[in-house]
Amino acid sequence: GAVVSQHPSRVICKSGTSVKIECRSLDFQATTMFWYRQFPKQSLMLMATSNEGSKATYEQGVEKDKFLINHASLTLSTLTVTSAHPEDSSFYICSASVAGVENIQYFGAGTRLSVL
Amino acid sequence: KQEVTQIPAALSVPEGENLVLNCSFTDSAIYNLQWFRQDPGKGLTSLLLIQSSQREQTSGRLNASLDKSSGRSTLYIAASQPGDSATYLCAVRLGGGADGLTFGKGTHLIIQP
Q1: Exposed/middle/buried for A54, CB within 10 Å: 0-12, 13-18, 19+?
Q2: Cα(B83)–Cα(A87) distance, integer angstroms
Q3: More confidently predicted of B31 and B21
Q4: Whose CB has fewer CB within 10 Å in chain A, the N or C terminal residue?
Q5: Each residue of B52-108: pLDDT tens digit?
């Protein structure tokens, strides 16, 4: 089946630093990738939709200048949390849809971000 | 705005029991509904995907039903095992192309050996 690799799995950083998370589709081309985050005891919430070669579409309440998304190729999307603060500590997870079979999303293993 | 609710929030049962997890959604115009399993600190494992035109899907000991008009889905787990312990998430998708998923908060399931 389709495999999505997300890296790193865990990151601890100091407040004010930027953190980049990578999401790769290993054995398929993904025209669309999605970024979600999950706060403790909350549901996964869609942050943004990333389309290859175009600007990401952000959900209401998600700051596009803080959460930079780049989808430069059909197999890679990156999420950069700029100037991270403790309130950005969360579980970030990406998913990807196979080009031509967009009704199914395959998820990465997620990244646990802790900002001190 | 689509909202997804899962009941119960937590459930603990002895091994071997059959159990039902419930999911409801407010906007019945969904494209599909998916059940996932999430293990602590890990990503999501897709269990079953039901298209809007389908009524149910089965995989092994799992059976998921969908009643789109009433905005409900159930996940039935037969003969539960300790390895089934996890958080089960229900998610709906409104569109077929560029739409992300709307998730419920999940049901935290513990199967006692």
Answers
A1: exposed
A2: 33
A3: B21
A4: N
A5: 999 999 999 999 999 999 999 999 999 999 999 999 999 999 876 567 899 999 999
Dihedral angle of Cα A78, A70, B30, B62, to the nearest 10 degrees: -20
- Quote the strand ranges of A1-116, DSSP E: 4-7, 10-13, 19-25, 32-38, 45-51, 57-58, 67-73, 76-81, 90-98, 101-107, 111-115
> Which member of B101, B102, B106 has the closest CB to residue A105?
B101
Q: What is the model's pLDDT at position A102?
A: 60
Partners of residue A112 in chain B, C-beta under 8 Å? 41
Opening angle at CA A54, ends A53 and A55, nearest 5: 140
Give yes or no for residue A112 having a pLDDT over 90: yes
Q: For the purposes of burial, counting CB atoms within 10 Å of the CB of B24, is it exposed (0-12), middle (13-18) or buried (19 or more)?
A: middle
> Is the CB of B101 less than 8 angstroms away from the CB of A34?
yes
What mean pLDDT do residues A50-78 have? 91
Is B23 near chain A, with CB under 8 Å?
A: no
On whether any CB of chain A is under 8 Å from the CB of B30, the answer is: no
Cβ contacts of residue A45 below 8 Å, gap of 6+? A36, A37, A38, A59, B103
Q: What percent of chain A has pLDDT over 90?
A: 71
Question: Which tokens belong to A37?
Answer: 């985050």
Q: Is the pLDDT of residue A73 over 70?
A: yes
